[in-house]
Structure formats: structure tokens, C-alpha cells
Design brief:
With 225 residues, this protein is of the alpha/beta class. The chain has one domain (4-224): Rossmann fold (3-Layer(aba) Sandwich). It is 26% helix and 27% strand. The protein binds S-adenosyl-L-homocysteine.
């Protein structure tokens, strides 16, 4: 079971009220999960004082931990039910994965940066979140555990990788930021039989999804240089 520490709980409650509920996040289970997961544990210690601020924060390796509101919006869009099989692409240090685990989903998460993947694996396990962290290019999805009830891509993609659509279960939801390297629109795709419903949620800014079906490696990390 995840550790039930109440450290910084007042800040989390304020985050949930002022950043999530105030902006229209309604799913009670998502709000509860984000009240319990200790966000400050999923970042380098020097960033921890700012953990509950309304923004993304650097986690090293030119990567970021997503803004709380975006994590909530993606999680709500993914409509995760207990026991759902969920795949995340872009683990970072594991915060979004912990939120999905707190919703009692069976969580698989892929990270291309081996150093971040290892840190996330250790952190999630130390805090008691049962999450499988895979090191590799997530643009191919992860076949051994497919199909998925939900897939969340937490890096900005130039287009929807076909492997991810293929690995969705019937009724499955795919939440993915699509656009340029600097600015994307968050899309919610729902698979119904052979049909894909595509809804645009809102504008967002993620670090690039780098891989076979993402942005080419050579744009990275020069993009931020
Ligand atoms: N989900 C994280 C945010 C991660 S930032 C959170 O909860 O805070 C995006 C992450 O995607 C980075 O760590 C980056 O290394 C990773 N990434 C980029 N392209 C990837 C790919 N093709 N496969 C797996 N991970 C990728």
C-alpha cells in the first residue's frame, strides 16, 4: 500500500481547490488521488519547495514534471476505473504514474531516459506504488501488456503513433498532446469498434516525444539550448 504520510497535505488541498476544482476538474476520484499522492517526493530536492505551485518544474536531464492541472486533465480524460490496464509514455520521475496507481489501475510506464527510469522505479517502489517501469522508446507502445483501457502520453508528439491506437482495447481512451515541438493541443481519442472519436481538450506545452514515431533524436536536447 502507498505510504499514507500527511506531509504537506495542506498545500495539496489548496492545490486541488485552487488549481484543479476551480478550473473545472470534477472527477471525485482524480481529486482524491491528487490529494493523497505526495507530489514533492517526485522531483529533485532543490525543486521540492515549489512542488505545489501552478506550473511544471525541471527534474534534470532537460525534462520536467507536468503542471498539476495538466496531470488532472489528462487523468480525468483517461476515465480510469479500478483494475483498468493503463500505459503511460514518458515516466519522468513517476508522478503521473503514481496518480494512476492511486486510482487502483494496473500501471505500466515507459521512459526512454534510463537514468530517469531507474530513479522513478526506486521512488515508486519506496513509496509503495505498484507500477511497472519499462526503459525504452514508448512510441511503439508496450505489447506484452496490451490491450490497454487507457494510454497517456506525457510528451508532445508530432502525430498519433499508430502502435498506440492498435494497443487500445475496445472502448479504450488515448490522451496525447499533438502539435509542434513548442506548443500542442491535448487530444482525447476514444476507440469504438473500428472507429476513433477524436476530441480536442486544450492547448498545452510538453517536452518533445523523441523516438521512432516521435521527433527525431537530433532535435534533442539542442531544442532547449
Ligand atoms: N509523466 C511525467 C512527466 C514526464 S516529462 C510526470 O508525471 O511528471 C516527459 C518524459 O517523456 C521525459 O522524461 C522524457 O524523457 C520522456 N520521453 C520522451 N520521449 C519518449 C519516448 N519515445 N518514450 C518514452 N519516454 C519518452
Amino acid at each position: 500500500m502507498p505510504n499514507t504520510s500527511t506531509a504537506r497535505e495542506a498545500e495539496r488541498l489548496a492545490m486541488v481547490e485552487d488549481q484543479l476544482r476551480a478550473r473545472g476538474i470534477r472527477d471525485r476520484r482524480v481529486l482524491e488521488a491528487m490529494t493523497t499522492v505526495p507530489r514533492h517526493e517526485f522531483m529533485p530536492v532543490e525543486q521540492a519547495p515549489a512542488a505545489y505551485e501552478d506550473r511544471a518544474l525541471p527534474i534534470g536531464e532537460w525534462e520536467t514534471i507536468s503542471q498539476p492541472y495538466i496531470v488532472a486533465l489528462m487523468t480525468e480524460g483517461a476515465a480510469v476505473r479500478p483494475g483498468d490496464r493503463v500505459l503511460e509514455i514518458g515516466t519522468g520521475l513517476g508522478y503521473q504514474a503514481a496518480v494512476l496507481a492511486a486510482l487502483d489501475a494496473r500501471v505500466y510506464t515507459i521512459e526512454r531516459n534510463a537514468q530517469l527510469a531507474e530513479q522513478a522505479r526506486q521512488k515508486l517502489s519506496a513509496l509503495g506504488y505498484a507500477v511497472e517501469v519499462i526503459t525504452g522508446d514508448g512510441t511503439d507502445g508496450y505489447r506484452p501488456a496490451a490491450p490497454y483501457d487507457a494510454i497517456l502520453v506525457t510528451a508532445g508528439a508530432p502525430r498519433v503513433p499508430q502502435a498506440l491506437v492498435d494497443q487500445l482495447a475496445d472502448g479504450g481512451r488515448l490522451v496525447i498532446p499533438i502539435g509542434s515541438r513548442a506548443l500542442q493541443q491535448l487530444h482525447l481519442l476514444i476507440k469504438h469498434g473500428g472507429e476513433i472519436l477524436d476530441r480536442t481538450l486544450e492547448a498545452c506545452q510538453f517536452v518533445p516525444l523523441v523516438g521512432k514515431q516521435g521527433w527525431p533524436q537530433e532535435y534533442w536536447p539542442r531544442f532547449f539550448g
